[in-house]
Amino acid sequence: MIRAAVLLALAATSGFGWVESVEFPWNSFPEHLWERELVWLKNIGIRHVSLTPGNAGTAESARLARVVQIVRRLDLEADLEGPVPDELQPLTRAHGGPLTEAVAGAVRIAATEPDTLIRERHAINSGAPAILWSDVEDTIGPNGFKAGAVNFAGDETPATAPLRRAALLSGYWGAAFNEMRIAPGARVQLAPGAKSPEGLSVTEFQSQAGAAAVSIINTSKATWTGEIRAMERGGKPVSLLNVSVPAHGAMMLPVHIPLVSGPLCKGCTGFAPSDYLVYATAELNTMEYENGIIAMEFAASAPGEVVLQLDREPSGPLVAGGRPRSFDWDEQTMRARLPIPAGKDAGGRVRIGLAMDAPDHTAFFENARVLMIGEANHLTAQFSSKEIAERSRLRIIPELPATQTAVRKTDSPDEPAGSSEPVRSVYHVNVPKTAVHGDHAELALEADGIQMSHVRPQILRPATLRFPDAIQVRLARASSYRLYPATIGVNARTGGEITVSVRNNAPEIRTFKLAISADGLDSSPASQNVTIGASAVRDVSFRVFANQTSPGLHSGEVKLSGAAEAAEPFRVLVIPSKGEMAWTADGFYFLESAALRASFLPGAWLEYLAKERGEERLPAPVTPFSPGPIATERDALVFSGGHTVRMPDLERLASRKEPAPRGQTDRRQ
Predict the structure, then answer these.
(1) Which of 197, 208, 444, 535 is 20–30 Å from 104 (CA)?
(2) Is the dihedral of CA 136, 138, 140, 146 positive or negative?
(3) DSSP per-residue letters across 48-60
């Protein structure tokens, strides 16, 4: 039974609140990529994952426990698609863990299928308590490879755009929708004699406080542009002008959103009770007020507008999509009409900000882009006055140890009397080594109960190592798998180069020492010193010699020391200079020579690569051999049924000089 976590209150109400969850296929997804993928899900706005169950009391159950621990460190929630094993009971919500209670009724949507956004919006309109997205990641399981919306390298396909929009929308509306009900009266405003547009449906949801959302779904093959008639609080009609919904698209438009501090307008403490957002013709994902500026983020596939009802004229300027833009102010109605430019990415994300008035006090961080794991990070904040600095406090999510040091002004004879030089403080934030690389922290400066500034720095290891020339296996046209540990091929007679890319994640120049070692191989040099700029990457190359080493896989390690410490395992594949060899790693099987590499999964011939030219000699993955176990001999692979294959056999098959082995089918298209 598919389970999706929701707040207990959600199950007891008839509201339309919902949770966006992603099925995380941990048991058919490489373990070394778990953390990276869960971080990505959190960063796009997903707060809940659904885990396929493991076999109780086995090593698989221990692996599942490791997944749940990552979920916990990221402050996410998870449920199991089945009962919770006894050994995982300490990780349930009842014991303070991330495994939540669950309710049935989730609508399952495969991310790789067409019209996923429309299906998701129909599910929300019908009151589904949760949406469960599947097929988000590439997987390799008992049935072989299955492509997802994100490949093993972390590259996204266009199929992730609806998921990203869904995550942002639920993050904004999810809690508010618990109190909403369907409000009659929303409709398409037609010209006299005009017919209702085909494939267009309009539904309005409204809370008792008057906040409303208008869901528009367009299942037709053409973009629809027109006017939508909705209802404000108290039954007052409002016209949403020039609404544009793309073909096979959907939008959730805000109507009558009060500009008071709460889940729909963060930090909005400086507005009158009568101030509100009248409507917008793009999806609203964020609205917040800080330092006298109201900022809004939208998903806008086409240009739109947002109308604000205010008790005073904004001082401006308006910045939309990163550029100053003009806006209309109507003194009679006290309404501001602000343009929304179309977003440039696949999700149409765009941000606008309007200055209401100059704040009495200001505070902001000068250098808070990243936080280094395992280090004390020194972040400088600037305040408009000494008094506001003394009354301020730093709020951090998650809670991290932090201390504050005031920066005194330097006495200078050139400084005029009564100088208003800003006051600075340095916050020393310690990030534990258990923090997850790629996660984010929320830092905010508050004074007198008002948030004056906030930043969202990324949490990173001080330095990261990777091998750009590592062997990767093509699984599909847009998906490859990089062997782990990274595997680099070298010639048994001539040796080869191993290149290590070192990324300095710190916001300053740093110097490191890089040392390399591998079983049975010599390297020149054994270590190197390297200086790398702030947030920059440098490649460091080592020459390895393998003439005294047997062909096959040999373990190695790269160690970084100096300004930071890191270590990364790797493998060296020693390839005979003449003849062929068979080898296996990570569930893949290979026939390899100095010039050619053929890779297989049971039942599938994945690629046939001319290495020097990087030429793929196999037009597409084929299945000329029986599925089932594969055995390796010195220079051959033995497939199920005892069929032995060597490199000359592959040459004939690839050039179609002979048919596939008897009883098998060549499925090349």
Answers:
(1) 208
(2) positive
(3) EEEE----TTSHH
Please report the domains of the chain, with CATH numbers, ordered by start residue. 8-173 (no CATH), 181-355 (2.102.20.10), 363-408+420-457 (2.60.40), 462-578 (2.60.40.10), 580-669 (no CATH)
In the Cβ-directed half-sphere of 154, how many Cα atoms lie within 13 Å?
A: 11
Label each residue of 595-652 as H, E or C.
CEEEEEECCEEEEEEECCCCEECCCCCECCCCCCCCEECCCCEEECCCEEECHHHHHH
Integer Cα distance of 250 and 244 in angstroms: 10
pLDDT at 640 over 90: no
Say which residues have a Cβ less than 8 Å from residue 39's Cβ, sequence separation at least 6: 74, 436, 437, 438, 439
CA distance 314 to 260: 17
- pLDDT tens-digit series, residues 338-361: 999 999 988 899 999 999 988 888
Q: Which of 1, 132, 139 is nearest to 476 (CA)?
A: 139
In a 3-state reduction of DSSP, which class is residue 90?
Answer: helix
Contact of 586 with 538, CB cutoff 8 Å:
no
Residue type, 525: P
pTM beyond 0.85: the answer is yes
β-sheet with 402-407: strand ranges across: 363-365, 376-383, 423-430, 402-407
The burial class, CB within 10 Å (0-12 / 13-18 / 19+), for 603 is: middle
- The 10 Å Cβ neighbour count of residue 346 is 16
Instruction: Tell me the pairing of strands 77-80 and 107-110.
Output: unpaired
Identity at 600, one-letter amino acid code? F
For residue range 490-505, what is the model confidence (pLDDT) as tens digits?
A: 999 999 999 999 999 9
Assigned token pair, 367: 């250098």
Residue among 381, 379, 377, 353 nearest 452 (CA): 381
- How many C-beta neighbours within 10 Å does residue 8 have? 11
> Which residue type, as a one-letter code, is found at position 42?
K
List, in order, residues 6 or more apart from 108 with CB less than 8 Å away: 2, 132, 134
Strand 643-645 vs strand 631-632: parallel, antiparallel, or unpaired? Answer: unpaired
Please, what is the Cα angle at 575 between 569 and 576, to 5 degrees? 150
Question: Tokens in use for 288?
Answer: 């917040």
Predicted local confidence at residue 10, as pLDDT: 32
Report the candidate in 71, 152, 50, 167 with the shortest Cα–Cα distance to residue 117. 167
